[in-house]
Structure formats: structure tokens, C-alpha cells
User: Fold these one by one.
Assistant:
Number 1:
Amino acid sequence: MDKQQLIEGCCKQDIRSQKALYDWLHPQMLGVCMRYASDRDQAQDMLQEGFIKVYNKIDTYKVVGAFEGWVRRVVVNSALEFLRSQKNNSNVSFEDESIMVVDHRANAQDELQAQDILKTIQSLPTGYRMVFNLFAIEGYSHEEIAKELGISVNTSYSQYHRAKALLQKIIESEKKTVVKTAV
Amino acid sequence: MGDLNQNNDSFEAGMQGMFSGLEQTADAHVWNNIEAALQQKSNRIIAWWWGGAAAAVLGAVLSVSLFNGGPYYEPRISNYKSINDLDYNACPDSSVLEWSNNPSDNTREHVDQIEPSSIHESNIDPISQIAVNTITDHLPRVVDSKEGQKDKVMKTSFTDSPESIDKMSIAGIELAWNADSLIPRDEQIIKVYDEDEIDWQDWDEKDYSDWGIAANLGSSNSSEQSTSTFGYQSEGLTTQDNSMAFGMSDQRSILQELTYLSPFVVGVRGNWRFAKRWSIESGLSYSLLPTVGESFTNGDKRINRYNDHFIGVPILVNFNVIDRKRFALYNSQGALIEKGIASRNTITTYQGSEVESKQISKEPTQGWQIGASVGVGAQYKINETWSLFVEPRVTSWLLNINVQDNIRNRQAIWPTIDLGVRLNLD
């Protein structure tokens, strides 16, 4: 079953096509969700909501651009919606606040791994995490983020730089640890 | 990794590179939950379809007749009152009778325009014979008088030859006419002309206020006789009392001016695609065919409103000429079958401008109407299940079986524009 057949099958609500699409794309999309979630369970919940939206909206997909990119956008939007709708995050704060970041360097034995940065990102407050993901990884502008999240451009800018500074500090510290260990 | 701390651009690029290949396999329960949610949605769609009422509302198809061409006028016969008395002056010599509405005008001058040989005035003695003449034409007309003025006469024709027109038919006409006319019976003269020699002109059809019409006439010794006068629905004639010298019907009718109003049609349609571009469409429809009749009797006005109700089934085959993801252009052809279910007749009588009485009667409507229909349509898909459509269509109601007079058997071709919501079952 090629990609086009897969899409057409999903448009007709064919369950085999839907399963095939899930098998094909869900690992990438779970990787996306992991960055927005605070843990794996939450990421899987986001993934579930995201794929249901993909199936419901697939007949609106226009054959312009990569299909995977379209699915990714739907999943990201779904993840943002998920975070906003979470009861505990109903008042997602974008105010300046002290960032309590769990330091995972204790678990890093050799060099800083993507998984370690991921865990650091996951430990960011929800508002920071959303801004960081959207700007640094999804490539949104601060204007787009402000519009998407309903915050000011300045808030988006300042939160991103605070999150970035924190991550850079961790990364720098890790580099020194790695060098010292090597010596 | 070292690049992450260099500058802004490299930091973001490093992050993107780091996470671009991040993949994780989800636990099995995630797909199970998704599958359950999809199944639930599918069940909801089925529930909508079988839900009946909800589907009927959402799937309402509104057919609006936009090219009706305005009200359609037609005389129609309705029962009015009995006549039990007979008296007449008539001469059964030709197929045309003139009826004066002026009591004092027994010697109308325009009569002189007619060849004397074709004018007859005489009294006819009552005779006992069976007459079954049927009136085929009985319309008010204008005749030029000698002074160039217009004069009102009533033209009456019979299916039988002029020679066979008998006194009973003429008497019946006279009686019916007398019932509405202001002409005292003893002053009334019936004149019979050779139809070919009279210069008939169109009559102002709205001015019926002092004219009556006789229909369902004829006489018979049999207990029942049907006539089809003017092609309208007519009641059977019943001779209830053979002692009546002429065996006249005990019913009479008056002329009504009918206005057929635009039909209102609403229904549901389901569409099932059986090939790439072909689909079958069917469902249920309800039609209301309203007719308003207006008549005058001795200065009183009566308005009859007939509401005939029909249930129908369209059976259509559609072919998509253009078939896009959201949009389709198609042609559609098939049959429309409707069954009469009920009729409601509201009679309002006015004395001047005041409502004198109002009667409502309900009765079952019999009969079938079958039409052939072709159209083109444009469809916009809202989602996989529902779509909006606009469908200009032409329908010809070919068969009207035992159906009371209505606009569909008065106008052969019906252009309509159907608007609605379509339920896609494929």
C-alpha cells in the first residue's frame, strides 16, 4: 500500500489504512509529543488525541507539501491543545517564575545525550516548554507563538531566552564534566 | 553537541538536529484506545442514520419552486346546493344558449344581429324522456350589441348534437342559473343561436359576481350517472326522485376561480455510490399542494382552500461529471412517485368584507402521481457523511391516477430548484 492509497483509505475510514498510517508515523510523532509532555504517559495521551484528529481531518489534507509534515502540524497543535486543556495546566503561567529544573546529569555517564536534554525540557514549566519547543525546534517566530498561545511577543521572547539560557548552562556544565572526566 | 552553545542560530539548529530523529514506540494500549474512539465515531454515524427523526431534520431537503410562473387560474366545480323545482322557457334548436342577466331585457338588441332564421324563442312543454346531454362548455362571454356595446351572455355547448338537446338539459341549466341570477324566473328568456354566427369575444374572467354556471347536468332515470364536465372532477348524478318530471340531478355546482399555489416539498434523501461516478439516490418526500377557489353567490364571496397532502419516494440515478475531493458536479435522472394521503378543505364565506362562516373538512386523498425528472446539481461535501447540494431540475408529471385536480395536472412541466443536505451512505 503506497502513501496515496494509505491516505485515500484513511479518507474512507478504512481501519486497515488507519492502522498502517499509525504504524508508519507514530514513532516520529511520539518523539514530538515527548518534547511537549512532562513524561511518557502524557506524551502517549497526546499522541492518541493527535492521531484521532489526524483521522478526522485527513479529508482536509491537500496534496501540497509532505504528508508527514501535515501530520506533524496536526499532532503539535493537538499537543498544545492538550496542555491547555489539562486541568492542572488550565492556568498555564507565562509569568516569570523561578525555574525548578531537574538535573539529569547524574544519570549521564559519558556524554550529554538527547534523552537527557529531553528530560530537562520536560522538567520546564509548561509555558516555557511550549515556547521553547515552538521556537527552537518547530521553527515558529515569536509573533506566531504569541498568536498561537495567546501571549505577548515579549513574553514569548523572554521565556524562550530564559529556557535557552538554562539549557545552555546545563550543556556547558556537562561539557566541563566530560572534559574533566577525560583528563 | 559543542555547537549548541556557540550562538543563537547554531543552538536552534543543534536542537532541531538532535530531535529530528527522535523516535519512540508507543505502548500497545495507545492504538487500542484510538481504534475504540474511531469505532465509537462510526457507531455514532450509524446511530444518526437510523435515528430517524434526527436524520430527518438534518437531512431535510427543501425543494423550492422558483419558476412557478405565478398563480394559475382555472374554473373548478364544487357542490353547492340542491334544486328541486323546475320551470323554463327554452328552445332546443342549437348548441348555444344565451342567458340574460338583465331582468328587463327580454328583447336584447344584439339578437337582431343574428340571422333571424337562427333565432328561436319558444316555450317547451315538459316531456318525459331520458336526457343524458353533457355540457362541455359553459362560459361567460361578451357579445357585441347593435349599438356597439358589450353585452353578457353565457355560451353553453353539449356533447350531443344540437338536435338532441332536450328540454331537460336546458331546464337544468336554467334552474341552476336562476339560483344565482337576479333574473326573476318568469321574466327570463333563453335564446338559442347557431354558434357559428355569433361573434364571441373574451370575457373578463374575474367578473363572475352576477353569473352562475350549471354543471353536472343531464338527466337519467338510472340511480347514478357520472359526468366529466370541463375535465374537472365532478360528482356523480343521482336521481333521487323519479317523480321529478325531468329526472334532474339534485346537485348543482357553481363556478369558481381557482388559484393553484406553488407546491411545498420537503424530505430526506440518502445517496449510495455503486460505482466510481455513479450513485443511486432515494428517500421520502412530503408535498403540500394548495389550491384556493373563489366564488360569488348572490353577492356573497366564498373562499375554498384545498390543501392536498402527498407522500412520495424519489428514485434517482446520479452521474458525477466532475468529482473532486470536496466538490462534485453531476446530472440526475429518475422517477418521482407520490401517493395522496389526506386533504383538508377550509370554506370561508364572506358577507361583504365580514367573515360569515368558516367550515373545515378533512378527508383522505386518493390516487397517485408519477413524474419523470432530470436535473443537474452541484454538491459540496461537508465531511464524509454529509454534503450540501443545489439541484436545478425539470419534472414532468406524466401520470395522475385518481388524483383530485391540482397544479401538477394543470401544468405539464415543472422546473424547480432543489436545495438540501445529502446523506452519503457509501
Note: DSSP finds eight helices and no strands in chain A.
Number 2:
Amino acid sequence: MDHLDRLEAQSIYILREAYRSFPNLAMLWSIGKDSTVLLWLTRKAFFSHVPYPLVHIDTAFKIPEMIKYRDEIAIQWDLNLVVGQNKEALAKGETFVNGLDRLSCCKKLKSDALKYTLDGTWARRKWNPYKKKWEDELNGAPYTGVIVGVRADEEGSRSKERVFSARDEKSEWDASTQPPELWNQYKTDFAPGTHVRIHPLLEWTELNIWEYIERENIPIINLYFNNGNGKRYRSLGCFPCTAPVDSEARNPKEIIEELTSGKFKDIAERSGRAQDKDGGGTLEALRKEGYM
Amino acid sequence: MQRLNIVITGHVDHGKSTLIGRLLADTDSLPQGKLESVKKMCENNARPFEYAFLLDALADEQKQGITIDSARVFFQSQKREYIIIDAPGHIEFLKNMISGASRAEAALLLIDAKEGVAENSKRHGMLLSLLGIKQVAIVVNKMDLVGFSEIAFNKLKVEYSEYLATLGVKSDIFIPISAREGVNLIEHSSSTSWYKGPTVLEVLDSFKSIEERAEEHFRMPLQDVYKFTRDNDDRRIYAGTVTSGELHVNDEVIFYPSLKRSRVASIESFNTPVKTSVKESEAIGFTLQTQIYVRNGEVVARADQSEPKVSNRFVANLFWLGAKPLELDKPYKIKIGSAQSTIYLEEIKRVIDGDTLDRADEPSVGRHEAANVVFRLHDILAMEQFDENQKLGRFVIVDEFDIAGGGIITEVLEPYANRRTKTHSVAWTLVEKAGDNAEFEEELFALLRKHYPHQFT
């Protein structure tokens, strides 16, 4: 077994453990490379099936290609897609482009939308793969297990995560009171009203993700590649706060070269994400409130 | 590239974060800009820069000045990649230290040359031994504070070796270092010219990763059985992660404890060439030639190889982290392999505390204590002794919703014949004596009458 086989096997074990432990399980799919790898690992774990819904939080400011790609893959892979959105904030114009600060905008359009979509308070838009159409779900049951594609190497606070990490009634995370996690035994019991975040990619690095995408030939969104203008996205988010980087890499192989020996060898992945930079500890503040 | 999980433990303030920060910086393993951004943050807060800050990425932690959780840090030597787990030394965070250490294949145990062996140095040594981590090097830090004295180093070495020997841990690797000054981390230093042993990096590179042991007998805890009906899929797939050995198509398999058997019809996978065999550490799925009903958590073995042990009683080394003590005869949940069952603590043989003083006749195992105990299970399960099969010889105990303790099985006992628990037998003895105490007898009969009225008409 090489290192990718080991990472793959461990992630599959975690996904299967989540699937058997949480009757109301969902996976967050941001359309980005990490959660798309997670989706691929799901198909590995369950022999081409995707046995739980995929939740996407649509801030309405996503790069348009992301939505197009999402809907295409959903049809192609027969996915049970669930979309959540903060319609109220959007209607009132409470957004960064209308003058709100970045972090408040993230909280409203991402953290709040995520929280109320997961607990079923807000309407969920669901893709019905049988009828091939979108339907609204009102008063949906809360998801008690939520699979998320965070990695420990991304950013300080994420390296503190457990593989199975409890969130309290307010969706909040307290890094200092987490129960222990031993060997491959995880927290699969939870109190009513709480939910557990499951992190199968915690030990993967950005490089591992690209190596795996290349090996498995996973159809990743082409925003990650230079499509002729000498620019590509290294990390995907909302267009007002995410900038592409200068790069000639046109495919996973060239990205791997860029990461191992080229220009991004020592540059942090989220360097194009503006919300990480507004002072120390801001992403952690967002994460405590439920941000991924 | 090869990877090794290592853990660095030690008493609070003995310099773990500094050691790791320094290793990262000196081997060029930090992302560009990280060092600068931490330096800038120190400047903004008018604090002198320290290597430890590189790890203390969490805002809370910096406020308290202690490492809260087992951060995972990636680091590279010429030989391989390391995941260094920085385990907190503060007693309150012992559970985090254990979470970190349980994933480790080797450990560095840090001791402060000036302060000497602290309570937690002993406790961590004991926990590493309980977790079954055999590759341990003792790093004596802050040698600069004792003038790089060989005498001080040797004194500590003797004292701690004696302690480790009482735990049955043999470690002859002791390294004198100064994390702050970078002494004996990557290269030898003239400050300790008397020291001829390896540097920290050399020791790390000398540790062995857990190699695949293909010669071992096949074991797979059954994690789940899948039957997805979508797209007319009619496969019934038995899924799990192989903990040891190899399995091939057409092998006869036996499930323990149900003893049901069948033959492997196919090995299933997605987006790979067709597989005819699988081995240790792979997360697999197979179909069988006949349909049998088995339960999640059973252990699959090959009919032509050894059997796992099957019982509902065992002796274990246990460490307890729960807020409430582990009590005799109270129901808890055990998770072992992929199985779960109700478990009762039957006997506490001895409680081992950090100061090597074993105590017998304790009524319970308290938080942060370790003990040698006998457990009794509600169900018969497949299990192994830890020294024969690590992955099926270790378990966790869940109290209410959280993992509250863990341990390793040192001896599998004969199963309880009739499953009558000790509680039952104690109750039975007392009921027989009911006549000795009139008041008790009256209350007991009132209770029986209430629950079984038809028996008294």
C-alpha cells in the first residue's frame, strides 16, 4: 500500500463508520476539490452508491461555473442534492457587496445558512433524481451526522479537530472540552439536540488531494486549471472574496508539479481567501459558530 | 514518501511546542510566510518571538499559554514525512494527549533538565506503555539551563530509567537537547561534546513504521453489510477493514462468534481493476457464495487459519478519562473492533497511579487513573490478547455519550457460563437473608407485590 492507499482506506473506514452510526447523515459538498474527493471516496466506500444527501450552501455569490458543474455531476452520479440559502439576508441586501463587512457576510450567507439548513429550520431545496426536478422540503428532520471535507494542514484551528467532532445545540464547537478519540474508535453516540461533524480528510494534505485526483481521474471543476488566461483558482469560494492566482497549470499533474517544486511550494493554500486575513483567529471565530 | 506518526509528550512547560516549532523551522518544513506571520503577530502584540507560537495557532490557546489539543503537524526529513502529534502536558488535557498518542507509532518523551522528572512525566511514560507504544526516546530538554552538564543528564537518565523499568518499558535512548538553542536536534553540538549518541532527527529516522504483516492470520471486523437496491444492484456486500492477513476469492470464511461460514464469491470495489485478493489495512467488501445472516461487529477469519478468541470476560489494562469514575457493576458501552456491547466492571485488581504506588481494594477507577481490571460483557464477542493482535486486543469504554476510557486486553478469560451477573448473585444472596431484617423484608415484598401483583393473589 502506498500513502494514497492508506489515506483512502482510512477515509473509507470513517465514512462507513459514520453511515452505520448516524441514521440522519448528510455530507457537505462545496463543489471544491476536497469535498469532491470526499464524494468520490463515498462512491469507493459504498461501491459506486452515494447513500446520503449532499448539502450545498448556495450564497448566491458562488462563481457561476460552480453551480453549473454541481448540477451536471448531480445528474450524472444520481445524487441526492440538497441546497440551502439565506434568502432573507439576500432579500434585505445584507451582504458584503452591499457594504456589510466580510466576516458578517460569511456568518449570514454561510454559517447561518448552514446551521438552519442542517437543523431543518429553513426550507431545503432538493433535487429529486427520480422525477428529475427540484422540490422544496419544509420542516426537514435535522441531520445528526454531517460529513465535512476539512483538512488539518489547511489552517491552524482545523488542525485541532477530531475525526468525529461534536457540535452542541447552538452548532458551536469547543476545542477544549472535546472527548478523547482513541485508535480508530470515534464518538458515535450523541445527546439529543446535538450533532456530530465527521472529518474523513483530516490527515490529507493539499498535495495528497491532487495526487489522488490525478490517480483516480476524478472529474474536478475546471476553475482549478488555467484555461488559457494564465490564471486559476487554488481555493474556491464566493467571487467577491476569492481571487484566482497566476498559474500556468492546466491539469492535476501540472498542479502537483507546482505544489512540489514550483511556485506554490511554500505558499499557503488559502492565501487567496480574504476572510482569513482580517486579524488573528478570525477563521476560528467563524468555525466556533459552525463555519466549515 | 514513507510516513510515520509520532507523538511528543511531556509535562507542561517542558518545551514540547518549542521543540516542534524548532524542528519545523530548522528542516524548512514551514509554509512560506508562516514564520513571518507569527513573527509579525508577536511584533503587533509587543511579545518576543518564540518557536512555540508556530503551533499555538488557536486564539484561545495563546490566551492561556498552554497547548489544548493534539495538533497534527507535518514535517519532513531526508528519509520520510512525519506527522508530529503535539500532545498537551497539562493534566486537564490528558485525554487529548491520549487521543494523540493512540495514533502514534513512536514517541518522544520530553523531560525538563532543570525541573527533573515530574508527575506527568511518569504518567505519560505509563500511558505510552499502556497504549502499547514500544518505540520511545527520552529527550532531556533545557540542557542550557543546567550548563549542559553531563552529570545532571546522567542523574535524570538513571532516575527515569528506574521508573520505566517498573512499567516494563525498556528505553535506552536518552538525548540531551536544548530546543530553544537547537542543540542536538538536527546536528550534534559542541555544547554537549560528551554526548556520543544520536540527535533527535537521527532517532526519528531510526524508528520503524508499522510494517504490513502479510504472514499473519486473516481478521476483519465486519463493519456493515450493504444491500443497495438502486440501479438494480443485487449485491449483498460484507464490508470492513482488514486488520491482519490476506483474503482471496474462493477462501472459506468463518464469522465469530456466530460460527456461520461460507466462501468468498467476489471482492468488490469501485474504479479499480478486478481484485482477487486483499490484505491488511485495506477497506474492503466481498460477496459470499451463500447468503448468511451475520451481525455487524462479528470478526471474519479464514477457515484454514487460527480462530480468534471468543468470550464475555477478560482482564485488561485500562486508563480512565471520564469526568465520573468508572464504577463496579454499572452498565457501560464497550467498542472493540466493529462490535459494541454492554460491559460491567467486575473487579479492580489494582489501581496504578503516577507515582508507581499501586493501590488495591479500590471501589472505583478515578479520572486520569490507570488500573488492572476484570471486565464482563453482556454479549459474547470475538477478541484477542493485545500482545497477539493489537487491533482486536484494544477497546474503548463509552459512558453516556462520550468515550471515557480505553485499554488493552491482557488475558481473555473463560466465558461466564450462564451470564448471571455478579449483581444478580449479590442480590440473590441478600434476598435469601431477607428474613434477618424485618423492615427490609417488608419493603422488599411491597416492591415485589407492586411489580408482580398476579404472583401474590
Note: Chain B touches chain A through 63 residues (CB under 8 Å).
